[in-house]
Design goal:
The complex is a heterodimer. Chain A contains five helices and five strands, in the order βαβαβαβαβα. By secondary structure, chain A is of the alpha/beta class. Chain A has one domain: Cobalamin-binding domain (Rossmann fold, 3-Layer(aba) Sandwich). A five-stranded parallel beta sheet of chain A has the order 2-1-3-4-5, sandwiched between helices. In chain A, β4, α4 (97-106) and β5 (110-112) form a beta-alpha-beta unit. The two termini of chain A are 20 Å apart. In chain B, α13 (285-306) packs across α17 (399-421). Chain B contains 23 helices and eleven strands. In chain B, the strands form three sheets. A five-stranded parallel beta sheet of chain B has the order 3-11-10-9-8. Chain B has a four-stranded parallel beta sheet with strand order 4-5-6-7. In chain B, strands 1-2 form a two-stranded antiparallel sheet. Classes of the chains: A alpha/beta, B alpha/beta.
Chain lengths: 140, 553
């Protein structure tokens, strides 16, 4: 059986509405053959967790331009509470270096900065999706 | 009849050029207009000088909206500022004024943009991107010692315009008549929020449509020095629209607002002089200059011919420009100073009325104080050292710039026709037509960058090894300071007369359901008695609908 394409949620949490990044990334992952679940900005954390569960997401991409990445650790905690420890969370956008360290520490798989090529994003998301599936296999 | 020398000479040049430059020489600008290697008098559009350009301050204002332009008065240096609590804002304002900023701006916290009070949101995010301002007392602190009767204040204040309401309430307390208050309701353009940069979108589109007309009417009558409407192209261009698309969509929104005001019985010569615009300035230098010159000409013609305005003040296309953040890179961030300089020059040669230059570190974090200082200095250098302002419209008459202005105008007009055919801007955005076009342009641009067709220095060319941690980033407001703010907010809610607030909020709700009533008048009345931002927005969201934008991938 052919490998199922990665399932990726592309979303924004918090207050910011600048969504050029999330829309470009959603379109790029879609064009690369992935199954993309796109949402408009301002999703509540419980909504994203529920969506991850319902959609069996491998990867959650959080786009952040205006400091919304500061509440990503809360999202990670909620995912763990829901038993979704294996879902890979990535953050893309304006993330100062000191915050990147904090996010990685909190369990974010990767942080993407401005200037990253779409090809690099696709490659990383494939790798993270594979990682999630192997973690899933291991725990099953 | 013999061929004129200019034509012969051109043929000879063409042949020599083709000898020297082999292969595909086609170049297109961001708006998709083909750019030739040379422009000459042969590219002249055929219109007379008076018809196409005229003199500065004369219809159709291609060369500038005032006879004096920067010889009379510099553009306003209007840097966006806002961080932390009202006290933090107040001290930063005083610093910026000392540095030469000649007008104020206020960016509230993202929680404010979303229509919420600070005590109802995750506290980690408070004050990280703007100042927390929730009620009249906060505004009083923010504007302490600021002469609001003399300095113009521009506030990022979307519908229902609570920040202006708080400022008017402060003016009343200080005994400053509203007729002395000047400034602009930035982010008052609900269409641009529905389409792009959704963070300012609070009320459902048709509810916001009603409130903006009430707001324009109220300001025209009671705060005549205030610009109640700033029509925004910046969001759409930042979201990916090409410069021509951004200009066209913005003019279409302008058409829609003007036609709504006319339908509400207002006189174009009363409201049009107070319409303003806000645009992005990308690093595509000549394209931006042409975009502004073309936009000015199209707007003048629309106002005179389509809306029937008779007063020349109604025909003037006043705009604020902000250098484009999307062009800035995280890689080699000091290079951004060169980009911002180029963008600012395009805006100045484009004839803007006020300018915000970005900090070089915007792709790293919210700008630091040092980066903000350099951004202001850049403007001072361009004006006072480089003498860019000695001559009005110095690029006017350039064969290239005039030809490109004509080409941009044609491109913009074609998009305006398309939106007119869709039934106007409200219909076009409710069908997602505009969002789809912007999304396609954004993706196309990113693909050009990834393919190396569009060079971005430090990103896809001329890369170097570097450590981003070398650059400091702005500190977030400290938690105890924000906690103490929350304590003061609770105290404020206890100290005010809740009976009066309840009465004002009920009147506001009733007004929202009474078409003849002016909603904004009731927003101001509620602000005066101490209703908070969240209470006012919440009431109108209940009555007029919650704002959910239409995003399209």
């Amino acid at each position: 059986m052919a490998k199922r394409p990665p399932r990726v949620i592309v979303t924004k949490i918090g207050f910011d509405g600048h969504d050029r990044g999330s829309r470009v990334i959603a379109a790029c992952l879609r064009d690369a053959g992935m199954e993309v679940i796109y949402t408009p900005p301002w999703q509540e954390i419980p909504t994203v967790v529920k969506l991850a569960m319902e959609e069996d997401a491998d990867v959650i991409g959080i786009s952040s331009l205006a400091t919304d990445h500061l509440i990503v650790p809360k999202l990670l905690a909620s995912l763990r509470e829901a038993g979704l420890n294996d879902v890979q969370v990535i953050v893309g956008g304006i993330v100062p270096a000191k915050d990147e360290a904090m996010l990685l520490q909190a369990g974010v798989a990767q942080v993407f900065h401005p200037g990253t090529s779409l090809d690099d994003v696709v490659t990383s998301v494939h790798a993270l999706s594979d990682k999630r599936r192997s973690l899933q296999g291991a725990s099953a | 009849m013999s061929t004129p020398p200019i034509v012969n000479g051109h043929a000879q040049w063409e042949a020599e050029f083709a000898q020297g430059v082999k292969g595909d020489t086609s170049i297109r600008n961001r708006s998709g207009i083909g750019i030739k290697p040379l422009y000459t008098p042969l590219d002249h559009g055929g219109a007379s000088y008076e018809e196409a350009l005229a003199y500065p301050g004369q219809y159709p204002y291609t060369r500038g909206i005032y006879a004096t332009m920067y010889r009379g008065r510099s553009w306003s240096q209007r840097q966006l500022i806002g961080l932390g609590v009202p006290e933090d804002y107040n001290s930063r304002v005083k610093e910026m004024l000392d540095l030469g900023a000649s007008a104020l701006s206020l960016i509230p916290c993202n929680s404010v943009f979303r229509g919420y009070d600070a005590d109802t949101v995750p506290s980690e995010l408070l004050g990280t991107c703007g100042t927390v301002i929730n009620h009249v007392q906060d505004m009083q602190v923010a504007l302490d010692g600021v002469p609001i009767d003399k300095l113009s204040t521009a506030m990022n204040d979307p519908s229902p315009f609570t920040l202006l309401a708080f400022e008017l309430a402060v003016a009343k307390r200080r005994g400053v008549p509203w007729t002395k208050i000047t400034g602009t309701s930035n982010q008052s353009d609900c269409i641009s929020h529905f389409v792009a940069n959704h963070m300012f979108f609070r009320l459902a589109l048709q509810g916001a449509r009603r409130v903006i007309v009430d707001h324009i009417r109220f300001c025209n009558q009671q705060v005549p020095g205030w610009n109640p409407l700033s029509i925004v192209g910046q969001h759409m261009q930042q979201a990916g629209a090409t410069p021509a698309e951004a200009m066209a969509f913005t003019l279409c929104s302008g058409i829609q607002y003007a036609e709504d005001c006319i339908a509400a019985g207002m006189d174009p010569d009363q409201f049009l002089p107070r319409f303003t615009f806000f645009f992005d300035i990308s690093v595509s230098f000549f394209e931006e200059v042409a975009k502004f010159r073309a936009g000015r000409r199209i707007w003048a013609r629309l106002c005179r011919e389509r809306f029937g305005a008779k007063d020349p003040r109604s025909w003037r296309f006043k705009f604020h420009g902000q250098t484009s953040g999307v062009d800035l890179t995280r890689q080699q961030p000091l290079n951004n100073i060169a980009r911002v300089t180029t963008q600012a020059m395009a805006g100045i040669f484009g004839g803007l009325q006020s300018l915000h230059t970005d900090g070089y570190d915007e792709a790293l974090s919210t700008p630091t104080t040092e980066a903000a200082r350099i951004a202001v200095a850049t403007q001072n250098i361009l004006r006072e050292e480089a003498h860019l302002t000695d001559v009005i419209d110095p690029l006017g008459g350039s064969y290239y710039v005039e030809s490109l202005t004509n080409d941009m105008e044609a491109k913009i007009n074609a998009i305006i026709d398309l939106i007119d055919q869709a039934g106007g801007m409200y219909q076009a955005v409710e069908k997602g037509i505009v969002q789809r076009m912007i999304g396609e342009s954004a993706l196309a641009f990113q693909k050009q960058v990834d393919a190396g067709e569009q060079t971005i220095v430090g990103v896809n060319a001329y890369q170097i090894e570097e450590d981003p941690a070398t650059y400091s980033s702005l500190e977030y407001p400290d938690a105890p300071r924000m906690q103490s703010y929350l304590g003061r907010l609770a105290d404020f809610k206890k100290s005010r007369s809740n009976a009066e607030v309840d009465k004002a909020i009920s009147a506001l709700a009733k007004s929202a359901n009474t078409p003849k009533s002016n909603v904004f008048e009731h927003v101001v009345a509620a602000a005066e008695v101490g209703a908070t931002h969240g209470e006012i927005c919440g009431t109108l969201r209940t009555e007029l609908g919650f704002g959910n934008p239409l995003t399209v991938v």
